[in-house]
Sequence to fold (284 residues):
Amino acid sequence: MASLSPELLRQSRVESVALSLREDIGTGDITAALIPADRQAGARVITRDTAIIAGCDWVTEVFRQVDPDVALSWYVSDGDKVVPDQVLFTCEGTARSLLTAERAALNWLQTLSAVATRCHHYAAQVEHTGVRLLDTRKTLPGLRFAEKYAVTCGGCDNHRIGLWDAFLIKENHIAACGSIAAAVAKAREIAPGRLVEVETETMDEVREALQAGADVIMLDEFSLEDMRRAVTLVAGACRLEASGGINQKTLVAIAETGVDYISIGALTKDIQAVDLSMRLTQAL
Fold:
């Protein structure tokens, strides 16, 4: 439904990597200072888990900001499936630079790969249907763009990126505007051409949103029966999105109702980092 521009993603990557290095290195890596400044080394990074990779560019940016002379060789790409003990990349440079960059680089790779892995797992369960799985705004503070990128690496899609790129008219918006029709009309006036989605909690509200001309109608915690009724009622006139408390146990049944989208906060909110390890292979 939404997409990040390459330039916006690049800018975010540079800024967020810089922040991650500032909070890790601070006034300087005093442990790395134990090593002679001219000591050269090589290292390799492996995964201890089966995973879907995401975040290669963030790792590369970490090493670029720490020491642009470090040479990286990648053996995987974003979206690749990897297995335990597989080498992901190797790097060569001063031992100080490799060790200073290690934790920030692995933090990015383990976190974004965790998101991609979760998304791949969920997407595989509903690939027999036409449904698309969407992320939400339930992301780690400061990592919104990176996590939404990782979602796409795992085979799912982005909902709106933030509060600026699409309308999502919820219960409180409707109450403040007076009605669904009034809220949708105002949205068309404020930003013609922007996607307008309306959250509904009853079939009557679905009818109102449909009549108001919403592009997407969100079915918030609807029963399976009511989801199927909504699919029949809408009959392709707009898109339907199921949302609210969806998990692995309920996912497939919801997908099989015929809705177009399912939004799931757990794609980015409830993840477990991929286990990675970096080891020096030589020190000269």
Observations:
- The chain has two domains: 6-122+271-283, 125-269.
